[in-house]
Structure to design on (363 residues):
């Protein structure tokens, strides 16, 4: 009599082995990437040390890289173009803390404070493509911020570029004092309070809605649902989607909140209402009602107070300030843009903010 095979056990064993092999492959790819990036760093170091020993002039240095490129490509194939060798050189200068030509808004003291790796061998965890992009960010504080967030949030190169192009660093920094900006550069986004998860403005260029195009609130909402993954990325850390057009009922009256999320880091619900025009005090009052309803009827005793965000096309800061309580920590009004912001203008505003705070401290 033939032995009876327990196919369930066999299938479970096969699944475990497949998972082990897949994990080993991913680990191998990660290790290869780390070794490759570390090798590029050391090649850059060799090039820089060779330049220093020979006091190579810029023009002559290019010829050296051209000759070096020919030799290495002849031996190892593609991958060692003059441009790539120059990237390796700059990579070493940037991440060893030795770079001198970097244009920065920070003082020398701040440079040394915000550079993440001043001494010893750096520990590289991102891909070479990530580092090539990060090297192009002149401000060390800004570069450190995007590197930290990319590692922490596992951003792809595409996601990193999108966050940079949407001026995430400047948008967050403009709402903070100077010390908070330095902390953010070194540690990334730290979520401790409702203010830490709210942006102004939110950038929704991924929806594909031109700035001057007329559309309804329902169209805006549907576009967000269609691009929910991108919207969650723009919202920031810790968000999970709960629902759309969530009904709130009392006294036989029905109200509908456009979007409801839960933030795991703050352990609270986040309600979002969409307004395609300028915000009114009625909009803020309605959001207060929604927030009170959730606090009194929906949230658990172990959860924190609900946050409400009215996302509008235009807003009057004075109206918002006079409508909301002085000690308000739950209701926020933020603008949204359907095109990428003017990064240069935000950078200028941040320069003025930092410069102004330095001047105030010197008096």
């Amino acid at each position: 009599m033939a032995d009876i095979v327990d196919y369930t056990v066999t299938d479970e064993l096969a699944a475990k082995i497949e998972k082990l092999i897949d994990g080993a492959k991913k680990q191998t790819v990660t290790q290869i990437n780390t070794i490759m990036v570390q090798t590029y760093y050391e090649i850059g170091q060799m090039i820089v040390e060779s330049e220093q020993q020979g006091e190579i002039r810029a023009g002559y240095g290019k010829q050296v890289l051209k000759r070096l490129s020919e030799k290495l490509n002849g031996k190892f194939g593609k991958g060692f173009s003059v441009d790539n060798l120059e990237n390796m050189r700059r990579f070493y200068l940037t991440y060893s803390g030795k770079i001198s030509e970097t244009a920065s808004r920070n003082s020398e003291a701040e440079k040394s404070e915000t550079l993440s790796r001043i001494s010893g061998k750096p520990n590289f965890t991102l891909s070479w493509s990530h580092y090539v992009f990060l090297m192009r960010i002149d401000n060390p504080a800004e570069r450190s911020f995007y590197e930290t967030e990319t590692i922490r949030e596992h951003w792809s190169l595409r996601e990193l570029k999108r966050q940079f192009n949407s001026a995430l660093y400047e948008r967050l920094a403009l709402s903070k004092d100077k010390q908070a900006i330095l902390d953010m550069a070194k540690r990334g986004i730290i979520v401790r309070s409702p203010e830490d998860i709210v942006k102004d403005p939110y950038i929704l260029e991924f929806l594909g809605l031109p700035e001057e195009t007329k559309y309804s609130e329902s169209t805006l909402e549907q576009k967000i649902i269609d691009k929910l993954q991108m919207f969650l990325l723009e919202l920031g850390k810790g968000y999970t989607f709960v629902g759309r057009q969530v009904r709130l009922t009392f006294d036989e009256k029905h109200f509908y909140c456009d979007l409801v999320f839960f933030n795991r880091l703050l352990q609270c619900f986040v309600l979002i209402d969409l307004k395609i025009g300028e915000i009114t005090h009625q909009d803020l009052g309605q959001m207060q009602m929604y927030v009170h309803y959730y606090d009194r009827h929906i949230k658990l005793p172990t959860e924190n107070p609900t946050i409400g965000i009215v996302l509008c096309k235009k807003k009057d800061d004075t109206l918002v300030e006079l409508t909301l309580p002085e000690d308000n920590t739950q209701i926020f009004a933020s603008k949204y843009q359907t095109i990428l912001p003017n990064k240069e203008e935000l950078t200028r505003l941040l320069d003025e903010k930092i410069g102004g705070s330095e001047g105030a401290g010197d008096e």
Remarks:
- The radius of gyration is 26 Å.
